[in-house]
Amino acid sequence: MAKGAVAGTAVVVCAAAAAAAAVGVAVVVSRRRRRTRDAEASRRKKMADVIEELEQTLATPTPLLRGIADAMVEEMERGLRADPHAPLKMLISYVDNLPTGDEHGLFYALDLGGTNFRVLRVQLGGKEKRAVQQYEEVPIPPHLMVGTSTELFDFIAAELERFVETEGDDFHLPEGRHRELGFTFSFPVHQTSISSGTLVKWTKGFCINGTVGEDVVAELSSAMERQGLDMKVTALVNDTVGTLAGGIYADNDVVAAVILGTGTNAAYVEHVDAIPKWKGPLPRSGNMVINMEWGNFKSDKLPRSDYDIALDFESLNPGEQMYEKMISGMYLGEVVRRILLRLAHDASLFGDVVPSKLEKLFVLRTPDMSAMHHDTSHDLKHLGAKLKDILGVADTSLEARYITLHVCDKVAERGARLAAAGIYGIVKKLGRDRAPTDGSPKQRTVVAIDGGLYEHYKKFSSRVEATVAELLGEAAASSVVVKMANDGSGIGAALLAASHSQYNVVE
Description:
By secondary structure, the protein is of the alpha/beta class. The protein has helices at about 5-55, 60-80, 125-130, 150-165, 215-225, 240-250, 305-315, 325, 330-345, 365-375, 380-390, 400-430, 450-455, 460-470, 475, 490-500, and strands spanning about 90, 105-110, 115-125, 130-140, 180-185, 190-195, 195-200, 230-235, 255-260, 265-270, 285-290, 445-450, 480-485.
């Protein structure tokens, strides 16, 4: 064979080999692309499945909310009958005289419910001059939160005395009178009168020896006596009851108060005839404020998801505070975290590696959830920055940011609508859920709300208000007002000290 022919054959063979190799590479690349496309399609399907399931389990259609409100009314009635199995204990507050606006004089309040306490001074001047107030917030040293009862109350009494010494010329104690104090004590208490109650247990990081089972008013009074402070506790109140008192002082049509903050609770004015468990003499007003402790409301109608069930199981109080765990600021961010973790595991929401910080309980706080939810930038850059700060994810995709926004929206929407169902339940229990049909004028009904969740999470609070109106219907909604009562519990305690003053004239 000629050399040229051999060379030509070699070239052909090499070209064929190269072509075959190219075909092989193309096949491999094609298969990889197909696998990538299939993997991406599978990931997106898993993402869609999780989100669809989420939307179904968190759904709160109007008929469901009406059923929850009806269940709330049923449980309220059971609690008022002293049914031992009722989740709502419907605690009698012994507050039967609410502020009228006619109160005069100098009164103090002490609000103890967390790592800080507040002392408040109020000069009441009746309907014309209303209230002049001053307050201070005092941090509690950490060692006193786990010390003895004497140490804690002595510290509080000393700070209270220091505050009294700064009264100034705008505040005047009538001659011959003792100073009087309203004591807001936001821990579980078995109340036995307007000015006494025994501590059931400490919460919120407190673990103090020698107080459980004791009268907290007696503990404070003894400390004030040791301090030489001339002051008498005339009202022991829960913060929700204080909010109700502060609300009705500002607006006579307030009938209920709700706390929507880190925790949640509600109180309302009930006619004593509707309280079968009341055994004492009938109050002159004919009414009694009821502390619902509604965070413990439970019903099979509540739309609990797998995320809620797991959260409850892993909580410090499994089986308790079911309603609170679905609507309060302590838990909303944690529900969002659990959903994002599921999306990260099942659908690689944040890439191939699940962020380790996302595994940490309560790493996503509700204020962070609110900040992400309120991001209006076109690329959700603020939400992305939050995810970076909280989860350590340096670069989130636009898809991941929009899905996170959607999750925040669904969790907040459910919480707000469930809270609204509870408010509607109270209004319904009072018979104020319908417009009059006999031509009589509409009766204005006001629900005062306090708490950081309601005040600062605007997309949450606006949905609460819209849902209450939706449940009432157009005719009834025009006479029901849900409004902010900022810091009502502080002045409310001072006002209750005034309305239950030992110097009030009994006719």
